[in-house]
């Protein structure tokens, strides 16, 4: 093992964070390793974990094991401790103003490490970021029609996915059957470069799309603001899953539930050049995160759309947009439609409390 980390501590942390099922899934999903084929599992959990850690140490992938165990269960304090001792949490040099002799090196999870580098882009707590990135991984999905990618969506309730109206317009227009819509979760590239195929979840028969709001047709023309979209043209649709997928654990019974995002009940406070993140399936590809630390351009004149610099591509419609504090601020829906010049912006539905109000009004 690497200096400073005791094998006993690593084994103990894994045993406290995982049971046999969730450990098996973590290894398969994150490291593409099948636990029963690399160590004997017909023994108590502590023994299985010891065999696993010993094998990883001998073969030289113990660092990968600790990294991915931490990322797969980001809220476990025992794994955080091992993660930091192993040297994977970034170190931050801190000194008092004008006093170089006061310099000390701390872990990124240490308290008191807050600073503003630029208005709207504060330094962020590393554990919150890791935890929220894990949330994004498990809650964002690709929306498919007839198994072909149509857009992106994300959980906003145990069995409810939010996406764009135009993503599933062919279903609402009866061109495609509602039964042809599925949500593909966990479709991503793993740390070892292997593509995880994901989990496909269908919609509830008879209640597939319980609520939607059309888009403003002019937004897809060269005059996207004439007239401005109204507060009833929010380009969203709710998809009702066939099961309460958000209540299911991400791995084994002891792993955390998948959970869902909560739509804000008030308009966000956004400033020009504030950072934004878009979690998406561009071109139907495995999940991607587009970050721009000066993303915000402006809200439109009637405060129904947010424009930003973050990169998106076809298939990104329906993606959640977050500020740099990981707060949900918009529902991405299109890019600059004018085709006689290079694109100048991407755009999302904001503020999201307008969508929340419509959902609450019908009792969903």
Structure write-up:
It is a single chain. The chain is of the alpha+beta class. The protein has two domains: 7-85; 134-361, Thrombin, subunit H (Beta Barrel). It is 24% helix and 24% strand. The chain is built from nine helices and 20 strands. It has helices at 7-17, 20-31, 35-38, 45-59, 62-72, 77-85, 126-139, 169-172, 353-361, and strands spanning 91-94, 104-107, 116-118, 121-122, 140-145, 148-157, 160-163, 181-185, 188-189, 195-196, 199-202, 211-213, 236-240, 276-280, 288-292, 296-299, 305-308, 320-323, 328-335, 346-349. Strands 11-8-5-6-7-13-12 form a seven-stranded antiparallel β-sheet. The protein has a seven-stranded antiparallel β-sheet with strand order 15-14-18-19-20-17-16, with no helix packed on it. Strands 1-2 form a two-stranded antiparallel ribbon. Strand 16 (296-299) and strand 17 form a beta hairpin. Helix 1 (7-17) crosses helix 4, helix 2 (20-31) crosses helix 5 and helix 5 packs antiparallel against helix 6 (77-85). The model is unreliable at 90-117 (pLDDT under 50).
């Amino acid at each position: 093992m690497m200096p400073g980390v005791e094998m006993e501590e690593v084994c103990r942390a894994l045993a406290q964070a995982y049971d046999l099922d969730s450990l098996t899934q973590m290894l398969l999903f994150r490291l593409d390793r099948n636990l029963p084929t690399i160590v004997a599992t017909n023994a108590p959990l502590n023994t299985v974990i010891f065999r696993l850690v010993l094998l990883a140490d001998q073969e030289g992938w113990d660092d990968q094991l600790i990294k991915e165990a931490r990322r797969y269960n980001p809220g476990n304090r025992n794994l955080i401790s091992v993660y930091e001792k192993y040297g994977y949490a970034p170190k931050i040099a801190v000194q008092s103003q004008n006093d170089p002799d006061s310099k000390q090196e701390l872990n990124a999870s240490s308290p008191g490490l807050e600073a503003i580098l630029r208005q709207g882009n504060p330094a962020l707590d590393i554990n919150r970021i890791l935890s929220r990135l894990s949330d994004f991984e498990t809650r964002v999905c690709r929306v498919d029609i007839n198994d072909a990618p149509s857009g992106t969506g994300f959980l906003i309730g145990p069995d409810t996915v939010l996406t764009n109206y135009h993503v599933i317009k062919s279903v609402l227009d009866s061109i495609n059957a509602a039964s042809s819509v599925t949500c593909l979760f966990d479709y991503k590239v793993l740390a070892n470069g292997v593509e995880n195929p994901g989990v496909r979840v269908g919609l509830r028969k008879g209640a597939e799309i319980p609520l939607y709001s059309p888009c403003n047709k002019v937004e897809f023309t060269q005059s996207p603001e004439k007239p401005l979209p109204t507060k009833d043209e929010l380009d969203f649709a709710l998809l009702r899953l066939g099961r309460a997928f958000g209540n299911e654990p991400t791995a084994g019974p002891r792993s955390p539930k998948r959970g869902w995002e909560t739509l804000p009940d008030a308009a966000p406070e956004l400033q020009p050049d504030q950072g934004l993140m878009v979690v998406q399936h561009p071109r139907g590809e495995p999940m991607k995160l587009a970050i721009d630390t000066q993303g915000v351009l402006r809200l439109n004149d009637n405060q129904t759309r947010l424009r930003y610099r973050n990169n998106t591509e076809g298939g990104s419609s329906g993606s959640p947009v977050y500020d740099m504090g990981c707060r949900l601020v918009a529902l991405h829906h299109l890019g600059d439609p004018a085709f006689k010049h290079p694109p100048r912006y991407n755009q999302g539905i904001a503020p999201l409390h307008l969508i929340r109000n419509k959902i609450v009004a019908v009792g969903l």
